[in-house]
Amino acid sequence: MLMEDLQVCPTYSKDLLQGNRRCRDKVLVSCRSLLAPNFSSSPWRGEPTSSLDTENKSASILHDDHEGEAPSPTAFDSDHHGPHREIFNKGDENDSKFKHKGTDKGYLTDHKYTKLGRIEARLAKARYSIREASKIRNLTSNLQDPDYVPQGSIYRNVNAFQRSYLEMEKVFKIFVYEEGEPPLFHNGLSKDIYATEGRFIHEMEKGRYYRTYDPDEAFVYYLPFMGFMLVEYVYDRGSNYNLDPLGLVVKDYIQVIAHKHPFWNRSLGYDHFMLSCHDWGPLVSSYVDHFYNNAIRVLCNANVSEGFKPAKDVSFPEIKLIKGEVTNLLLQSTWKNKDQDMQIYEELPEGISYYTKLRSSKFCLCPSGYEVASPRVVKAIFAECVPVLISDGYVPPFSDVLNWNSFSVQVDVKDIPNIKKILMGISERQYLRMYKRVKQVQRHFVPNEPPKRYDMFHMTVHSIWLRRLNIHIQDQ
């Protein structure tokens, strides 16, 4: 077991905000959503109550029920509830028609759709296809693919995942707003701390995948500002953590977008997304209620205690993070220099390679940093070391698709004194299975340049695609 110098994440304990009810005239969030089958009677997205367990439940249509887990119903097995019951029923009938029509053209020509209606029809067809694929509960996808065929227990449901991925590649389009000037907009670091965020911005700007320059063709709309650049150029370091200037930049930007384009007001932000690895990303989004409550926020700091909502937000992999203190102190005081099996370092001794230590360790401890995200998770996966996620409230990346319980260990902060006992309780046979799965899951976390199918860039877009499948937007 190995852990680098440790870090911690303070929490702000911000109350989760409720969605604005005025959206009901325009945006329908289906209670038979692909990501949230166990909704209450309200058609709105449910609020998360825990981290990984909540994400597991919210993703059950892509869930594999082997390894002793009880089968969970698909998103379309529950009864209809709520004030929009007739609308939901009509939507399900539309989905089922694809079984008989068989093509987009046949369905679309039978209905005089607006441009938005055509997009919603394509989404309905995709939902139907994913639903049908999810019924096949084997461990290897039955779909052909020249690059990769998902298989094994690292996935919740291999057929649902691959069908969803292929549907995304076929139809998904993203519009990138051109308003805003660098360095705050359209700009990002490609190396160092916020590399994943910068690479995503650069890739979307290049337009090699998914980007459309016709906003009427778009399924989602990208707000291309970078949290780190806001901090670097707008934040006053002598202001005692006054984030108002950063939040006001975001607020003004969205006001410009809403004034120049009809799309934000049409959906009140439900089909818009941001991406931020900076720990203040979630906070600056709170300066616009509809942004915080409705929009898809792709965040490295995927902490439910700070308002991250797994049903609508996306957990994004971290590459490198600033150092912190609190979890570090807890782990060091408990384990440093006290047990040879638990090699805990404040700083690595001279001449010892961190990567070599990772490669030679069976389990790699991945505590939180200043915020809940940690680059150690990806480092452990690349080193073929089983990651041990030490956090309260962290939702791991791609949890809609990946069964993290099959290749990682989750430990609450309160159980840090019991870590050795927990890990010693994992049999050698079980460890070897987890080790093989870590090697298998690597492909989904590689930030290739240029991107390759099923890698980190495409998996992030797929997570956004899944959230867009969760809503139905109507013309006013």
TrEMBL record:
Q: What organism is listed for this UniProt entry? A: Glycine max
Q: Where is this region: Disordered?
A: 64-104
A molecular function GO annotation: glycosyltransferase activity
Where is it predominantly found? Golgi
Its membrane topology: Single-pass type II membrane protein
Q: Does the keyword Transmembrane apply?
A: yes
Q: Which GO terms describe its cellular component?
A: Golgi membrane
| Positions with biased composition (Basic and acidic residues) | 77-104
Q: Which Pfam families match?
A: Exostosin_GT47 (PF03016)
* Name of the molecule in the record: Exostosin GT47 domain-containing protein
Stretches assigned to the Exostosin GT47 domain:
169-329, 332-424
Location(s), subcellular: Golgi apparatus membrane
Write out the similarity annotation.
Belongs to the glycosyltransferase 47 family.
Q: Which UniProt keywords apply?
A: Glycosyltransferase, Golgi apparatus, Signal-anchor, Transferase, Transmembrane
